[in-house]
Amino acid sequence: MIDDANASTRAVVEALGVGKRFGNHAALRDVSMRVMPGESHALVGRNGAGKSTLVSILTGLRKSDTGEVRFGGEAAPPVADRDAWRERVACVYQHSTIIRELSVAENLFINRQHTRNGVIDWRMMRRDARALLDHWKIDVREDARAGDLTVEARQLIEIARALSYGARFIILDEPTAQLDGDEIKRLFKRIEELQREGVTFLFISHHLQEVYEICQAVTVLRDARHIVSAPVSALPRDKLIEAMTGERGGLNVTDAASRDPLPAHAAVALQVEGLAGADYEDVSFAVKRGEVIGLTGATSSGRTSVAEAIAGLRKPQRGSIRVDGEALPPGDVPAALKRGIGCVPKDRHHEGLVLTQSVAENASMTIARVLGKFGIAPPAKKNAFGKKMIDALGIVAQGPEHVVSGLSGGNQQKVVMARALATNPDVLVLIDPTAGVDVKSKEALLSVVDRVRDEGKAVIVASGELDDLRTCDRVLVMFRGRIAAEFPAGWEDNDLIASVEGVSLHEE
């Protein structure tokens, strides 16, 4: 409830009774939210809860059907006045808007370059870029090519660009999705420093632990409605998840420690020996049928590269991969599929989906030759398979012909999982399988791990998410490209995290 008559003049931004419909679909219903100066305010909710629609209204990309948005107590500018919106708010999206081929200075002043007599004044642009970077303590060269920077640095460039317009309200959309532990710590430190300088943040994340680490307040949306806004300290994790899902309790994921042990005679499904690549060296391990192995470590540890090598997405420099005792040709996706390896890749938008195609077309992509002659599957067969996977994985779609670009992130990831399972693989490789999806979608995706394990398949889960790793019978920790430790099911969070960070909590 909004009960302070003077609060509206103090709030950086307010949404008051905002509603938005797309045809018969209500994307937002009477949503109200207030963000106060200098705070980091979390916006959380399941995919499809209305977060993206609310952000589009708060940034002036869409006009609400009902209600209003106010900045500092004053009505938001007209949607057409883009300069006025840039002075008030900016969004740093999960998928960067930085143009990699341009320099840092060019990105900072894109579409507003300094000119002299109609010609760009490059010297003045670089000088002003340097001053802007120094003011906000961003340690990159103004003439550096943006594509050569780290993800972390590019995010800071986007924040600096927004601040240069005069905006002091920044929306961060999944800012840590592509960062490792040290990078996240540095980003959070910069956010806290900017808060002290009067910058206010709206922080959108599916990583609920981050909400408690960096945010002072949180707003929960569910089914297009505002559920609660509260100080983070007043909303424990179980209550936060309950607000997001409408159900009591935390994430309902099977802990591998509660499973019966594997039979001693279980056959080895996958053997990795002496594998080496650009960011990993001498990696060896085996996975038995009916076993789930976790592969974790910092983003730069090499865990993703190893998983991609097993799936044929990346060619290792040396070493061998054997499936059921037979050598797998390196860097060959068709060969990996043929040998019984299915994969959920890291980036569903670029590696996992054809966004312009339907659920059925995406799900059946790897089995077109099975469904029809010469690799051309009849639409009826594709749609029948799509319907089967919609039912099996709980994909929320209008039907198998629903174009995947119109699905929520969690349902898109289920379609990627459907494609991985289509070939009935003996070895399933899951790379960050629940990244950027909501709590209920996480539960659905991770329940697949239990199901295929019970079918006697081998599973590799390459992830930095603790909830993903709880499904694993063993977790291998990679540090600086090598396997540094192994944890059986039942590990303690602190021990695993410390190993990922390269420290020991139990040194004498």
Automatic annotation (TrEMBL):
Reply yes or no: does the keyword Phosphoprotein apply. Answer: no
Please indicate if the UniProt record lists ATP-binding as a keyword: yes
- Any idea where the ABC transporter domain is? 13-248, 251-505
Per the record, a Pfam family?
ABC_tran
Specify the domain of life of the species encoding this protein: Bacteria
**What would be an example GO MF term here?**
ATP binding
Protein name as annotated: ABC transporter related
Report the source organism.
Paraburkholderia phymatum (strain DSM 17167 / CIP 108236 / LMG 21445 / STM815) (Burkholderia phymatum)
